[in-house]
Design brief:
The protein is built from no helices and 17 strands. It has a four-stranded antiparallel sheet with strand order 3-4-5-6, with no helix packed on it. It is an all-beta fold and 192 residues long.
Length: 192
C-alpha cells in the first residue's frame, strides 16, 4: 500500500485520508475515533478523528499488532499481538484514549479481544488459550485451554469472541488447528 488510510461515505464520496505509515492490520471504529494497528517498518496504534482524519496520537508498539478494540465507553483501547520474533515478545496492553499512554499491560500477548458491554471484563485469545481479565485493572480472572496441544506451530484463529449483552456468556469460535485436525470449534462459557 501507499501508507495511507482512506475514508469514504457509504455513497462512495471521499471524506479524508491520513498517513498511517504502514499496512493497516486491524481497525476498530467508535463514535468519535478510528483506531488502527499497523505492521511492517512502523508498528503501533494510531488514534484518528473519525470526522476529520486528523491523528490524535500514536503508540509505538514493540511488534506488529494482531488486533485493536475500543472499550464500550470508548475510554480504553486494547492492543495485542501474539507474534514473537528475535526482537520482541508477544504483548498486549490497554491504552488510555485520552492520553495515548498505556494504562496497564496484560500478562501475555493475544490475537484478539472483546469487552463486555459494561467494560467490566476483557476476554483475550492466544493460539491455544482463552483468558478473561478485569477490564479496569488487567488482573487475570481465569483462563481455559481451548485448542488441543501446546498451541505452538498450530494454525488456530478465532473468527470471533462474543459476550452476550448481559456479560454472562462468552462465546469463542475457532476455525481450525491444522496440527490436530480440529475444525470449527465453538466454546461457550457461563459466568457463575
Amino acid at each position: 500500500g501507499d501508507g495511507y488510510m482512506y475514508c469514504y461515505t457509504t455513497e462512495g464520496t471521499f471524506k479524508w485520508k491520513t498517513y498511517i505509515g504502514s499496512w493497516g492490520v486491524s481497525v476498530d471504529v467508535s463514535k468519535k475515533y478510528v483506531a488502527v494497528t499497523t505492521k511492517s517498518d512502523v508498528s503501533g496504534v494510531r488514534l484518528i478523528d473519525a470526522k476529520t482524519g486528523v491523528q490524535k496520537w500514536y503508540y509505538e508498539a514493540p511488534a506488529r499488532g494482531c488486533g485493536v478494540v475500543f472499550s464500550p465507553d470508548e475510554k480504553l483501547i486494547w492492543w495485542g499481538n501474539d507474534t514473537c520474533s528475535s526482537y520482541s515478545a508477544a504483548s498486549s496492553v490497554v491504552i488510555d484514549v485520552a492520553t495515548g499512554k498505556v494504562k496497564f499491560a496484560l500478562d501475555r500477548g493475544a490475537q484478539m479481544a472483546e469487552w463486555t458491554a459494561d467494560g467490566k471484563y476483557l476476554a483475550a485469545k492466544t493460539a491455544s488459550m482463552l483468558y478473561v481479565y478485569d477490564g479496569k485493572t488487567g488482573e487475570t480472572l481465569w483462563s481455559n485451554k481451548v485448542v488441543p496441544g501446546n498451541g505452538q506451530n498450530a494454525f488456530s484463529i478465532a473468527f470471533t469472541l462474543y459476550y452476550s449483552a448481559d456479560g454472562k456468556y462468552l462465546m469463542a469460535v475457532f476455525n481450525k488447528d491444522t496440527s490436530h485436525r480440529c475444525w470449527g470449534q465453538a466454546y461457550f462459557f457461563k459466568k457463575k
